[in-house]
Input
Amino acid sequence: MANTKSASKRARQTAVRSLRNRSVLTRLRKMHKGVAGAEQKDATSVRSLVSAVDKAAKRGIIHRNAANRRKARLNKALLAAKPAAAPAS
Output
């Protein structure tokens, strides 16, 4: 229990922010599972996931370097899936 008025306010703010951050992280995980589990990785779903990762990093929900690492891995997987999907000519 908080001893001061300001400490109790900070506790309330932390609870609200934690709930918001948890929902963003859950959404990111679900989007990533959707992209990773897809047979064919399409650019639109990867692009929307990269956008969501950028927004989470901008808000400080995930670390900036972690966001860059996730985006690099997504783009690498997308490029690896492209030649396999395209017919050889």
Remarks:
- The longest helix spans residues 5-37.
